[in-house]
Amino acid sequence: MTTQRIIDILEQGQVGQRITAKGWVKSRRDSKAVTFLVLGDGSSVKTLQVVVDEAVREAAQLQLVGTGASVAVEGELVASPGKGQTVELKADKVSIYGLADQETYPLQKKGHSMEFLRSIAHLRSRSNVFGAVFRIRSTLAQATHRFLSGQGFNYVHTPIITASDCEGAGAMFEVKANTKDHFFGRPAMLTVSGQLNAEALAYGLGRVYTFGPTFRAENSNTNRHLAEFWMIEPEAAFFDIHDDMDLAEAYLKALIEAVFAERRDDLELLNSFVDKDLIKTLETTKNATFVRLTYTEAVDILLAAQKGGRAFEFPVAWGSDLQSEHERYLTEEHFKLPVILTAYPKEIKSFYMFQNDDDKTVAAMDVLVPRIGEIIGGSQREHRLDRLEKRIVELGMKLEDYTWYLDLNRFGAVPHAGFGLGFERAVMFCTGMVNIRDVVPFPRAVGQAAF
Ligand code: ATP
Ligand code: MN
């Protein structure tokens, strides 16, 4: 007899069918004549109710089995008289794989805090909320590959160890061998972004994307920054900033559609227990036309709000980087929609961004969504070699450090653009989780590398 996953049993199981179900006991309830086991196997947040009568109960030593124990149950599917399920399993045999001590199993009780669950990260995926979060994380990863390959993007792998502080995107971790100084013949770091390598590949393959780990020594304890996080970086030749924004908007919508199509149960659970507005926010985003405006227009809105009495911790001024509170004001309070900001002052953005004619701004774009703020950062890249070189020199950087990168645009330069989506920020957005440490199974952040 083949084992069926609980989601299949609940969706396809017929009354009268013989089934073997394997899983973990979520709860056990005894009455005089029967015991009810609620069984989950991780395939879904849904559970299978198992009814065990007295004779089977005694044969199986079921008195030992409690929340967290693992079992295999054989029996017949019967119509369920109870609410909340259409079939249940009438067991004629229960075998125990492993018991879980009821005194010490930490997930016995419900209603643990997120902080506590973080301290048992090796066990928390067994809880309903974390099961839902990590299933959605998987769906988002698969949907990323489907969407981008559907748009003709090739999945490429860029190095994790790098010798160039490519974009000054953040403080870096140094990589050292314990056998040899300068193993690579020069100082080496963990990458902060695969972008410059992706640009090289885009000039060969037209459209590429990376999906890999990136590392930033963010020495700040925010709930939106990890030291190790995953980033998706599409890069396309013959793309301008508008194509880039269109791709970013379509990609976010495709992610939401995949979660609605594949993980409706998990969304509903999270909507009940984590964020009451989750489904509404995702619906709104999926159906919205993202608001597009320039950084300068955004600053005007923020200045007007400030004048009208809206207090910000950091004052707003043209030329300084927007803080999370400013981004969230725009998307959550002012527009109540996702927002794409463009044309940022060149001083606060990276050297490689396409220089606008005003000589003050560059063709950058950040996508801001409610509850998160910046979820995507991207730009059209400067492909005009003379301008690129001039900017590198202006910023006091050395041209010789960028020889290979400059070569790209020395031969066959074309307009091109791309962006980086912080994968964990996307998972936060699609699950309602408020702390980025709770959307990656084993978080690495300042002061935190357990498990
Ligand atoms: P922020 O201003 O939020 O710190 P950033 O502008 O430094 O982000 P980018 O260099 O634009 O980030 O990186 C692209 C995307 O990667 C960001 O839009 C964000 O979604 C994500 N990201 C950046 N830093 C982190 C981090 N430390 N942890 C998790 N995700 C991050
Ligand atoms: Mn950014």
List keywords for this structure.
single chain; alpha+beta; eight-stranded mixed β-sheet; binds adenosine-5'-triphosphate
Describe this structure as you would to a colleague.
- The chain is an alpha+beta fold and 451 residues long.
- It has helices at 6-12, 54-59, 114-119, 128-150, 195-205, 241-262, 264-273, 278-287, 295-307, 324-334, 385-394, 403-410, 423-431; strands spanning 18-30, 34-40, 48-53, 70-79, 87-98, 154-155, 161-162, 174-175, 188-190, 207-215, 228-237, 291-294, 339-345, 361-369, 373-381, 416-422.
- An 8-stranded mixed β-sheet has the order 6-10-11-16-15-14-13-12, with helices on both faces. The chain has a 5-stranded mixed beta barrel with strand order 1-2-3-5-4.
- Strand 2 and strand 3 (48-53) form a beta hairpin.
- Helix 4 crosses helix 7 (264-273), helix 4 (128-150) packs across helix 13 and helix 6 packs across helix 8 (278-287).
- The chain binds adenosine-5'-triphosphate and manganese (II) ion.
- Adenosine-5'-triphosphate (ATP) is lined by residues 169-170, 216, 218, 224-226, 229, 231, 374-377, 420, 422, 424-425, 436.
